[in-house]
Amino acid sequence: MTSPNVPRNAYTDSPEQHPHLILGSLQLVFWIFFRRSAWENHLQRIDPTLDSDSKIKRRLRWQNPDFWKLLIQAFLVLPVLANSIVVALVLWLLGAPVEKIVSGVGWGVALGVALGVASGVVWSVALGVGLGVGWGVVYGVALGVASGAGGGVASGVVLGVASGVVLGVALGVALGVAFEVGSGVVLGVGSGVVWGVVWGVVLGVASGVASGVASGMALGVASGVASGVALGIGITINLWLPVVLYPFLTVWNILLYQLDKRRKATKPSFLRWHSAFWDEWQRLPLQGLDEYVLLVMRRNPQEGKAAFNYLSTSRQRWAAQAVQIELDARELERCTDVAAIGNAYRNLALGELNSPVSSLLSSFSRISEDVAAALNQNSSYNQRSVLTPAEERLNGLIRELTRSGDKYTVRFRPIAYSWYEIVTDYVRELAEVVELRQEIDNPYIIGVPLTEQQEIFVKPVDLSGTYISTRIEQLLLDRRRPPLLLYGQPRMGKTSLLNNLGRLLPSTIIPMFVDLQGPVSSASDYGSFLSNIARSMAKSAQRQSAFTLPSLGDQILGYDPFTWFDEWLDEVEEALQPNIALLAFDEFEALDNAITKGRFDEEDVLGMLRHLIQHRPRFKVVLAGSHTIEEFQRWASYLINVQVVHISYLKQPEARQLIEQPVKDFTLRYELNAVDRVLQLTRCHPFLIQLLCAEIIALKNEQDPYIRRLATLADVEAAIPEALSVGSFFFADIQSNQADAAGLAILQFLAAQGEGAIVSRLTILQHFPDKSDALNLLLQRELIEEVSEGYRFQVELIRRWFASSLSVM
């Protein structure tokens, strides 16, 4: 529905025809010459089946009043107007007075309409409506041949045709002068061009035979050349006419722009009369169009947006692109604090541009995302640590723009410098606040995965003590290309590892991280599903390896998205050479849930994944989740020979480092027994270490400065209740997604026995008969462990949460 702030029939390829019969007829002529799409859409509105030969549809068509209106305009109104204009012009050139011209045209129109209708019925039925000049020439040639047959001279016939046309026109003009144009119009309108040409050819052939072969050949050649030139001009009109009109249209467009600049902003603009919106054949850039659209956007955003959308698919799409770039520049320019900078990336149209400035806008977008990530940190230290890389990128961008000779340098360099000053000042303010309060910086990240920017990240190891990244690298070199499953408890660091693979693996391996939660698995159709995957791949490759994938098109949103996605992967593989892509799908359980709900078909999605694994040697696939493939049988049937990489608790050296020296120059010191207690409570679980240590720092920052920098065993114990409360989302996920009802009952029973308590299998089965399957599932989920023919919680903090939840029940 058109906005009330957008003029009616403006910025559309399907305008409505003017209701006035004559003005509407002239509008049709204008559309045919300048707006072919408007003409075609008009015909579609009248009757979408105009090209159909069905008898039923033809019968219904003749009952359509709009169709009759079209016929009247095309075969009556327009011919009358055309002949009246021609006759008036001829009389004017002959010097006839104005009164004679007016009365002559009036008589011509009146008699032309009357006789035109009568003779048009007879002759149009006989000769066919619309054959026009073509049939006139055919019959003229026939009569010419008959008249010249006595002479037997072919050239006389040619001469007859040529001179006949000339004589026919002369006869029409002479009669028009004699009878005040009345009969001239009668001949021109009543019988159409047919009568003038027929009688002219008859007279012309007679005189042609008499005047001889020589003059006939001369006139014939002249007539042929003239006809050829006219035909060539008509065929190539769309090539040369835009060039001829260009200077005149430029003056017209500039005049409109200057008038609008001087008008009040509240008045409707003249932009809709700009030739870009009615001349579809103009390929040459209409200079100043982008500035004009920006002017209208500032005064009337709805109208400016409508004009922008129209230009985006027209021959003047360059102007839409220039407008979008300027809008992005203004959006970046309006960022006057770090909060605005952190939000800027949401409003940039990166995927909509095909221009060298795209890489520049991508740099601003990435910096904006870094700032947003920094502002989401819950400590001053983490904010500073994430903002530091953003500072460095801005500094590098300024140097790059200083050296560049690109036309956009002048526009974007001041913006980069402004951002750099804002970010630098904010980092300085954070440091001053921390120093003033003598606070301990809290480097721990709670609730969100670690990115490649966090220094706190510790490389996880598998059960054998081998670094997981090393294990993944070894499996990637396997020529059999087996898919990998990165399996482990929730919050064990799987996503953090995937986010950091770019700096852990060789540069020849390009990580492409795809989070299957959120937009991917919640997509409404396959087009959006595959588009979200492709965009995630491109974004991750750029962020982790500074590798740019081929640009994404909009075809995936239309017909046959799987074919489009497969073709795009062809382009990606070609661009990868000689590198390898590590396609990592995180939280694959979310996609399985979408398949279970019927949102996607199993064969379509998992079949595509299997095809990618088997037939694209440059792609290695990693799945990450807290469940095994065996728990989802449909996955197991598609992903054969999956290699499981088990990510588990940290080893003690890495865990101690995470507690005592998480980052460089960490100011908090621990008593030895305090560190041992943290290890005992968390069992070196990376998330639980961060959770508990973050609460210890929060507790210490509330104490007097003279005891603030040393953590004791009492501090560790005092931080436990708050850690259980802050981390409730983690423990609630265990309760909701890691155990069934029978398993939860067993966990609460074990939790009630106290810290470190071991309960025999016999005792458990006596309390929960026939629940051995639930017990085995708890073992598989690594929530409990088997010790001396009994079972106990693996992690004390998890036991305490279940014990506290039991006391509340």
Could you characterize what this model shows?
- The protein is mainly alpha-helical and 809 residues long.
- 64% of the residues lie in helices and 5% in strands.
- The protein has 35 helices and 10 strands.
- It has a 5-stranded parallel sheet. A 3-stranded antiparallel sheet has the order 8-10-9. Strands 6-7 form a two-stranded parallel sheet.
- A hairpin with a 2-residue loop joins strand 9 and strand 10.
- Helix 12 packs across helix 14 (317-333) and helix 28 packs across helix 30.
- The radius of gyration is 41 Å and the shape is elongated.
- The two termini are 56 Å apart.
- Residues 119-217 and 452-456 have low confidence and may be disordered.
N-to-C span = 56 Å
**What proportion of the residues is helical, as a percent range?**
55-70%
Instruction: Record the strand order, biggest sheet.
Output: 2-3-4-1-5
Helical element count?
35
Number of strands: 10
Summarize the structure.
With 809 residues, the protein is mainly α. 64% of the residues lie in helices and 5% in strands. Helix 7 packs across helix 8 and helix 13 (301-312) crosses helix 14 (317-333).
